[in-house]
Amino acid sequence: MNRILIVEDEARISSFVAKGLKAEGFTPTVVSDGVTGLDYALTGEFDLIVLDIGLPGMDGFTILERVTVERPALPVIVLTARDSVTDTIAALEGGAADYMSKPFRFGELLARVRLRLRSPGEAAPDDELVVGDVRLDLRRRRAFAGEREVELSAREMSLAEVLLRNRGLVLSREQLLSQVWGYDFDPGSNVVDVYVGYLRKKLGADLVTTVRGLGYRVD
């Protein structure tokens, strides 16, 4: 079980990331300041770091520099509100394995975490998901219903991917909101119901089952 260090001073974000990673089988540890973050990062007990840049006590660039020198095999994913080209280049050239700007979608962060933890030579996740006559080509981001190609928006594609990957499982609206729309969402929003309706119209009325009071499931 991979251990992941989350160095993030905004409690709402760190809690969101930690809960999501724990649900996916990882063991997350959260620290909220730079000095403690560096101490933890150098222990050798973690397999990956999710690192904010704007931290109290010590900024993320300093932590990244020390980790790159002292733990060069430890992958670091920078997750920050700073989205300028200069900051992106500084992080990547400073040794970061990846860089994501806030706001972000958990599904994308999860994919990047899995990619960075994959062993050399390990097969990549399936590039295609198939349920009945619905097929998603994840590499080319294309969807098909039978022989017919269906045009999906980026958000519709992400929702379809999450539902098909979790075939047979009931996913609550809150789970779908966090994985597809990100941490900065309104829990009372009906956007999930609206987009499920879009998928039913485009990919087939029977694709997604409503489980009353619980959420949605693809069988």
From TrEMBL:
A Pfam family of this chain: Response_reg
Q: Where, per the database record, does this protein carry 4-aspartylphosphate?
A: D52
What is the protein's given name? DNA-binding response regulator
Q: Which InterPro entries match?
A: CheY-like_superfamily (IPR011006), OmpR/PhoB-type_DNA-bd (IPR001867), Sig_transdc_resp-reg_receiver (IPR001789), WalR-like (IPR039420), WH-like_DNA-bd_sf (IPR036388)
Keyword list, A-Z? DNA-binding, Phosphoprotein
The record's SMART domains line, in alphabetical order, gives: REC (SM00448), Trans_reg_C (SM00862)
Q: What PROSITE patterns is this protein classified in? A: OMPR_PHOB, RESPONSE_REGULATORY
Name the DNA-binding segment ranges.
126-219
* Record-annotated Response regulatory domain positions: 3-117
Any one GO MF annotation of this record: transcription cis-regulatory region binding
The entry's cellular-component GO terms read: cytosol; protein-DNA complex
Q: Which GO terms describe its biological process?
A: regulation of DNA-templated transcription
The chain positions of domain OmpR/PhoB-type read: 126-219
